[in-house]
Amino acid sequence: MLRTGVVLVMGWLAVLFCAGGVQAAPGGADAPTQTAYLAGQLRKNPVFISDQIPRAVPRSTAPDFAKEARRLGVPTYVMILPNTHYGSEATGLLAGVHDRLARKGLYVTLSPTGLDAVQTYGVSLPGAEDASRATLYELPYDATPREVFRHFVDVLTSGHAHQRAEAAHAKYGDSVDELPLLHTDRTAREDQSFATGVAVTGIPLTALLLTLYAVRRRRIRRAAAAGGPLSAGKRPVAPKTTAHTKRSPAGSKTKGTKGSRTGSKKAGTGGSGAGKGAKTKSVGASGGQRVRMLPLVVAAVVLGGLVAFAASQVFDDTTSGDGSLPTAADMRARVDRVAEGLRRDPLYVDPESPPALDTAERTHLRTQLRALRIPTVIAAVSSNPDDESDGNKDLLLKALHDRLHRKVLIVLAEPSDGGIELANYGTPVDPTYLMNRPRYLEYSGSADPALGRRLDQLLTYLGKAKAAKSGAAESDPLGYDPPPAVDPVEEQALPGLFTGDFHPGLVLGVFAALLVTGLVAAGCGTIRVIVMARRRRYGAGGGSGAGAAHGPHAPVRPSLAWLRRAARHDLDALTAALEPGTVPEPGAPEPTAAALPAEAQRRAWECLDAAALLIDGDSDGRIDADATPAVLACAIVLARAGRTAIDEPASARHVCHRNPLHGTARKRTEKRPGGGTPGGATRSTTDAAGARGTGGPAARRRAASAMWTLPVCEGCRVTPGAVLKLRSEESKGRGAYVPYATLPGPLATLADGAEIDQLTRDVREYFGVH
């Protein structure tokens, strides 16, 4: 009898013990609270990573967090949970976990968005709060939890946590979003691809077009410097030699190098032979230009390749994030945990989340589930974009069914907002009845987020469900096959740099190159017009000054380029006025030489012949490349004097002796012998004895009173202008300016007041033409 009683007592104790074990199991009636569950996990490992965020923080990265925590030198407990699992206050969660764990150390909570709270219990770790603040301000929003925790440890171990926190708050306190991102996302990669496309075509094409523009402008400048055709109209290549002018034999030259040009001067050259030669030369030049284009194009292509290579080295990111990729075990951990809990109990409440159901609600729901004719399970778990299903609840439902391997109606409840999802996998219930449930039991959470009350109403509604028709229970529970979630590896992988917006960037680069080239050309053209206008107004080298008052075409210190342009222009104008078959320049007066007196025609033709002898020794209609400033200035004076002989025959004998470029001299000014000439030479017309100071007093008085006159223009008569200065021939147009009277050549005779007729005779004599 005693033995029987002992056996019965032991049997009841065993039953009670087993029942308590079942109730204490995860998912049972007395499931642990969130703080108790997290404390239990931290006892196993000081770093706990939720299995609900494998895309953001894989559980396999726990050793990396543990490695950083060891640098602090104190026990550190790290929890990384989804954003919605902290409840109202993260610090309250830390306090609850510490009370359950009862261990000294630093407690840290993180989420996919960053560092949420830090707290020390029983250890001395100054600066923990300051390091948390500095981390918040110093890192951009795309920093991963692993990078955030590493930065927190760096700041805390630096010994300057407070200073860094204050400085970061002062600098970034109100502009956290302005911090540069740590990682390249897909939007940034599209921007990089677009910029690369623009650079690959824009930079080489711009360089090519600007080079071609520069070459063209250089060719134009060289042609202008070498002297283009002396007339824009149709005329002989070289000006005609007048009937009274005869050339001496080639060997009878009288002036050194210039005498060699005599034999090459042929009146009326430019016939068919010359035209053919010019055509042949033009064709050759075109072929040479095409040959020269090839290296430029090749260089542009090479430059584009270098730009593309440089871009691939600069934009070398292949993934977005810190390189943490979840494993297959990380991706299935939560589904395995929830499915295992549903096998033991039809009601599973996620222990990582804040409690959504109290003990009474759980007991009542379990009673209702057991009373249902339909096999039903409830999983109260959250969904977020960082979980294995990418936030797709249909995928989570399908994954749970694949783990359970039985016919069941699965209810997925969202603890945060009370939302409910249903999926019927083979149970005998009418699908239309499930679809037409009341509005307050719709898929999304209603205005009443109380999850316990809504689940009670749902189970009551399911208890009245009608049986399904034949074959209806085997239909697709979701109505469609949900697409698979994005592979986390592909999700973090960035598209190639030379894809996507790279191709539109190539097209825009072409337009950008054309636009830049056009702007550069327009800017250079504007500057060139301004410079030309200034040169015409003030002269190439004089700026404003005394010479500027005498007209825009008479600079005091003309440059070689200005002299060449002026010589070509003035000779063209004179040729158009004298040659009956030429076409004058736009705006130029019609030729009037046919109605001139014989004397004026003679003087004009002699001026044209003399000017042509000076600057067109090759008789090719172009200004000689070796023409000196003095020669060019003399040709300009002759060309202008020839036009004056046509327009004002009575005023064509003299030009201004101070600056012959001033043109016709209508007045004369008196000069004393001591004043010298513009070139600095003294006159020889004074009495020799008086000049030397010898002789009697009467002779010296006569010498002092001797006066002579020199021709000047109207401006120099009122206000004497500066003497014309030219660069010396030895300096090749680059040396110092000297008075024109000191330079060799016929031009110097004008400083003594020589007439134009005398100047033309001196030019012919200078070149040995009679």
Describe this structure in words.
Keywords: Membrane, Signal, Transmembrane, Transmembrane helix. The chain crosses the membrane at residues 194-215, 294-315, 506-531. Residues 1-24 form the signal peptide. Residues 250-267, 680-691 have a biased composition (Low complexity). This is TPM domain-containing protein. The structure is a single chain. The chain has 770 residues and is an alpha/beta fold. Helix content is 47%, strand content 8%. The strands form four sheets. A four-stranded mixed beta sheet has the order 1-2-3-4, with helices on both faces. A four-stranded mixed beta sheet has the order 5-6-7-8, sandwiched between helices. A hairpin with a 2-residue loop joins strand 3 (105-111) and strand 4 (114-121). It is elongated, with a radius of gyration of 51 Å. The termini are far apart.
List keywords for this structure.
membrane; transmembrane helix; 12 strands; four-stranded mixed sheet; transmembrane; 8% strand; alpha/beta; signal; TPM domain-containing protein; single chain; 770 residues
Uncertain spans: 14-29, 231-288, 538-552, 581-588, 672-707
Q: Report the strand count.
A: 12
Strand content: 5-15%
Helix content: 40-55%
Number of helices: 23
For the sheet with most strands, the description reads: 4 strands, mixed
Distance between the termini: 167 Å
Shape: elongated
Strand ordering within the main sheet: 1-2-3-4
Structural class: alpha/beta
Whole-angstrom Rg: 51 Å
Averaged pLDDT: 77
